[in-house]
Amino acid sequence: MLLIHHDAELLDQLTRLFESRGLAVATAVTSMQAMAQLQAERDYDVVIASWDANHGLGGVVYRWVLRNRPALRGQFVFLADETAPEFDRWVAGRCLTVPPGAIEEIVRVADAAVRRREQVRQSGDEDLVWLDHDRPTLLLADDDPMILSVMARLLGDVGFAVTAVEGGNPAITRLDHDDYDVIVVDWHMADGSGAEVYQWIMTFRPWLSDRVVFISGASPRDIADIAPGRPAVPKGQDSPALIKLLTGIARASRQATR
């Protein structure tokens, strides 16, 4: 693990915490120190860095990584109470942001990243290699905050870079600016339905249509009339089946853009 933070006290706290969990921790308090660590070509499982509206340290390092060590760009976790204005433009949904005071959440996210890297190493499964280098982007739209939170955490833990929005219209706004490897949309939403999202995609971003998956309690026939051929997953379906479906779509999306 590489910890990058301007607050020496927090840096020390996190260092002792992660070392007590058996992780080898390197630290940096300036961008030059961080780049020196990264230039050594060490294979970090996770990089935790500060990047908020007042401190751009992590942003400087991340932009350097994009140019010099792009394989690490999906391994970052950023600490911020308020994200910097340019954050979304540079990160493009690849990384998570956690408040610096949420120590338990920082540990949970870091542990998930380490476990995922170890599972890839042990399994030797070529289908999982893409998780190791560049997490596939996933847009998740659901107007139930609880379902949205649970699904975002589940999909983030298995390797997707999740952008979560509460409704179809916010999803359309995101799609108007960025492409995603997978798009998961609730069918029934008050602020723009799944049908409206799909019709917008077919009109303005038709190349994304084969990346759409619907989640719903509606009849599959109702969905098939508007979005023929697109998977409709019943709410509450077992997670392994859903993850397998989304992983297959993400893999196909990556192959199509190579």
Brief descriptors of the model:
single chain; 258 residues; alpha/beta; Rossmann fold; 2 domains; five-stranded parallel β-sheet; 11 helices; 10 strands; 47% helix; 16% strand; elongated
Contiguous runs where pLDDT drops below 50 for at least 5 residues: 123-133
Shape: elongated
| H/E element sequence | EHEHEHEHEHHEHEHEHEHEH
Task: Note the beta-strand portion.
Answer: 15-25%
Percent helix, as a range, is 40-55%
Coarse structural class: alpha/beta
What separation lies between the terminal Cα atoms?
30 Å
CATH domain fold name of the largest domain: Rossmann fold
CATH superfamily of the largest domain: Response regulator
Radius of gyration using CA atoms only: 19 Å
Total number of strands: 10
Q: How many helical elements?
A: 11
- Under the CATH scheme, the architecture of the largest domain is 3-Layer(aba) Sandwich
Tell me, what is the CATH class of the largest domain?
Alpha Beta
How many structural domains are formed by the residues? 2
Could you give the order of strands across the largest sheet?
A: 2-1-3-4-5
Average pLDDT score: 85
